Structures are given as C-alpha cells and as structure tokens.
Amino acid sequence: MTNRIFTTPEGVRDIYNGECAVKIDLQIKLRERMHLYGFQDIETPSFEYFDIFSEERGTVKAKDMYKFFDRDGNTLVLRPDMTPSIARCASKYFKDEKSPIRLCYCGHTFVNNSEYQGKQKEVTQLGCELINDPSIMADAEMLAVTVDCLLASGLKEFRIDIGDVHFFKALVSEAGLDEDKVYKLRHYIIDKNSFGIEDFLKEENVSDELKEVFAMLPKMFGGAESLDSIEKITTNKDALAAIEYLKSLRELMKAYGYDRYIGFDLGMLSKYSYYTGIIFNVFTYDIGEPIASGGRYDRLVGQFGKDAAAVGMAIVMDKLQIALSRQGLLTKKGKDIEKIVAGDDAVSAIKKAMELRESGKSCMIVME
What pLDDT digit, counting tens, does each position of 107-159 carry? Predict the structure, then answer.
C-alpha cells in the first residue's frame, strides 16, 4: 500500500467540514438570488459526447479536455465548459419556444491544462443563461444578477470589467488581417503585450490611426472616461457603435443602482471564441484571477439547431470562496449539534432525538 491512496491527483482536492458547509450555503444563497430573476434550475451530465465541446464550438481546446471512451467506442469528455451543455439543452427541450428562456445551474467543470499548474482543474461553477433575448436589457440584466449574487455572497468590493467583441472585430476588419494574423494579434492583446503588438504592426500595411488604436488596446480600461478617450482616436463606424452600446448599457446599470460596480476594458478578449457581443470579467481584492465571467453568444445555440440569441454568466465558486476568506468576509457555517446520551434507556433517547429533528434541530445519539 502506498501513500497515493490517501492523496488526490494534481488539480483536485477534498472539501470537508466547515469549508464544505460554507460552500453549500453560498450556493443556496446565490441560487435563491437567481430565482428572484425568474431563472429555473437545470442539471446537465458531468460527461457528454466530445462533439458537444469540439473546437468548432469555440470552447476549450481538445488537448485540454479529459477524454475517454464508452463501450461503443464513442469519445466522451468531462465537461470543460457549462455553456455548450446549456445550449444543447435549450435546442433540444425548447426548440420551438419563442419567449425568453431563463436557466440557472450549479455544476463542476474539468480542464486538463498544463497552464493550470498549481491551480484547480475541477471547479464548481454557478451561473445562468438568458436565451431568446437579443436586447440590451438582457445584457444589463445579466450584469445586474451578477452584481446581486456577489453582494448576496457577502462580497463588498469588486468590479465588473466589460468589453465588446464588436469593437475588436471592427478594427481587424478595417485592417484586412487574415485569420492567422488575427489569431496572433488576439493573443498579444489578451496578454496585454504592448511591445508584441507594436512589433506585429510594423510588418502590416495598416493606417497610422489603426496602429494607434491597436497599440492602445492593452491600456483601454477604466471608467466611462476610457470610452470617451478612445472615441477621439478612431473614425471606424462599427467600433464607435460598440462604444455607444457600452455607454447605453452603463445608463441601464445606473437604473439598477449598480453602475459603481462596472468599468470598461475595450482590450478585453475571451479565450472562448463563441462570444459575439459584450464580454465581462469580475475582479476583486486579494485574488489575481476573475471570480466570474460571461457575455453574449448569439450563434452557439444555433450550432445545435435552434437559432437563438443568448447571454450568460458564471461564478467560479471556489475562487469566490477564496476571495471572501482572504478579505475576512467568510463566516464559518455549521449547525449546533445536540448530544443525547442513550445510557441504559435507548428508547427514550431515540424518542427525544426524533422530537428534536422534527423541530428542525440537529442532534446525535451517543453511547456513554
């Protein structure tokens, strides 16, 4: 017998005692907030056919998935991303539905990525999807429910950085870059690599105006003033339309009373290529990664046979819990458990225990 049977594989861990109780309590609180917005629960399988998450969907790369085979030789994967699963369900169970579809979930995702050294490869995501609604009101509501859930968790200071895929697409379309070059440029921008962008543009035949805008992308974040500043250096109509959309979105967030929680990042690009409109990440103190993210994906559901606009968000519960703990906002959760000593009268002890449990109190019978 080796020590391996007492340990877990890299990237996964046991959650027990108070930490597990806190996590479950958080999940209940957040799902209750989503229910107040009309979202209804859905569960999807932990593993599905590989085709659901194929690279054409714009999700996780094939090499980063946990793959295995069923007895018929079909390739299966542990789900690396919740959104394609929800898109599949919407197409299957709500194919002819024209009204908005509101679904919420809590489940585990699995990513087998070497970049995740020292990080969890299995995480719990809690999120919601609003399907069949292409409006700016739907985008605003998704941001509002994100804020509402984070406030319900006890988090006090956080910021939602919002970008728009249309802005980047408008610029690369004007530049006339092919797919390979767009891919390279995307990664320079995602990495906030200003020097890489500058060197890349030296080799490209693009206008000085475009070079200036591309060079500024890693720095285009902040409040509403960041939107005003970029308007002054581009004349691209589609890019300007994206900025106006974000400004309108901010006005709706003011109506919710949540505008203090939002900022903008026009250099934001997602590793998921299925996003078609707004995208957003949520940041807070003492943790260097987003604790939540989301955006609009108007073509993904259509890949499963239902032409439907959609917007969604997901909170990474593990990261949220870490942030709350580091900020001193996490209170230990655990019910008081009354001990009932059985002694020589086991029948009386059982009756008393049943009475306490009927009244909602926790208890256990001990032999002493």
Answer: 999 999 766 556 889 999 999 999 999 999 999 999 999 999 999 999 999 99
Whole-structure pTM value: 0.92
Which CB contacts under 8 angstroms, 24+ apart, belong to 182-189? 185/214, 186/269, 189/214, 189/217, 189/218, 189/267, 189/269
Cβ distance 46 to 78 under 8 Å? yes
Mean pLDDT, residues 159-171: 95
Q: Identify whether the C-beta of residue 153 lies closer than 8 Å to the C-beta of residue 26.
A: yes
DSSP 193-228: -HHHHHHHHHTS---HHHHHHHHHGGG-EESHHHHH
Name the nearest CA neighbour of 242 among 292, 173, 339. 173
How many residues belong to the chain? 368
Pairing of strands 362-366, 337-341: parallel
Per DSSP, the three-state class of 265 is: strand
State the Cα–Cα distance between residues 257 and 225, nearest whole angstrom.
19
The contacts of residue 8 (CB under 8 Å, 6+ apart) are: 14
Beta-bridged to residue 365, according to DSSP, are 340
Alpha-carbon distance of 336 to 171, in angstroms, equals 60
Q: What is the DSSP letter of 331?
A: P
**Mean pLDDT across 6-29:** 90
Domains of the chain by start residue, with CATH:
7-178+206-326 (3.30.930.10), 337-366 (no CATH)
SS3 96: coil
pLDDT tens digits for range 236-280: 999 999 999 999 999 999 999 999 999 999 989 888 889 999 999
Residue type, 102: R
E strand or H helix at 307: none
**Among the listed residues 281, 321, 265, the one whose alpha carbon sits nearest the alpha carbon of residue 124:** 321
- C-beta of residue 216 within 8 angstroms of C-beta of residue 233: yes
In the 3-class helix/strand/coil scheme, how is 284-304 assigned residue by residue? ECCCCCCCEEEEECCCCHHHH
